[in-house]
Automatic annotation (TrEMBL):
<protein>
    <recommendedName>
        <fullName>NADPH-dependent FMN reductase-like domain-containing protein</fullName>
    </recommendedName>
</protein>
<dbReference type="Pfam" id="PF03358">
    <property type="entry name" value="FMN_red"/>
</dbReference>
<feature type="domain" description="NADPH-dependent FMN reductase-like">
    <location>
        <begin position="54"/>
        <end position="121"/>
    </location>
</feature>
<dbReference type="InterPro" id="IPR005025">
    <property type="entry name" value="FMN_Rdtase-like_dom"/>
</dbReference>
<dbReference type="GO" id="GO:0016491">
    <property type="term" value="F:oxidoreductase activity"/>
</dbReference>
<dbReference type="InterPro" id="IPR029039">
    <property type="entry name" value="Flavoprotein-like_sf"/>
</dbReference>
Amino acid sequence: MENVLLLGLSAPTEDDPYGDRLLRALSAPGASGTRLVVSTAPSVLARAGSEIIAPSHPVADALRQMAALADGIVLTTPETDGAPPSSLRTLLNWLTWPAEGSPLVGKPVAVLTTCEDSVAEQKPYSEVERMLFTAGATIIGPRTIVPRVDRALREEPDGQVSFGDPGAAVRLLFHIHRTAAAARENAGLPPAEDFRPWLL
């Protein structure tokens, strides 16, 4: 069965210590018919700040090409009432501007947020979701919040990341599954086979 490609994006570890780890846990073993490729916001773009009026940037161009090739996007960010980490905001600026050529237009996007507290005080929409709405992305929501993320993820001796919280794993995997299903529909592909083995 032909796979759909989801691009996982997060801020660098210094800005978001859990985003990349969460995506790596979700990328293996992978759902039937779905491939999740993990990337972080390049530090060179973070240093570039919000100077999105520049005509081109090699790293930004490569990132836009990656996003254009992907069938869907999975974004991770800390749950916050304010702006997301500046590196992630800069990455989104490069992806969404100019709007006419944005690779996010009409693309299914899942937003996953992490929180170290047991209960997250969430607003109806995060700043990341507002940026995606403005860019014309198709948000597959509502976003999934992972409370007590420090306990939900477990670093294995071999460097792999697994889930220590089965409930969080199921919520996240269903969100990824819905995003992949929307991507399959956009691409004109048949529905994926039963994805329950992904949860084992």
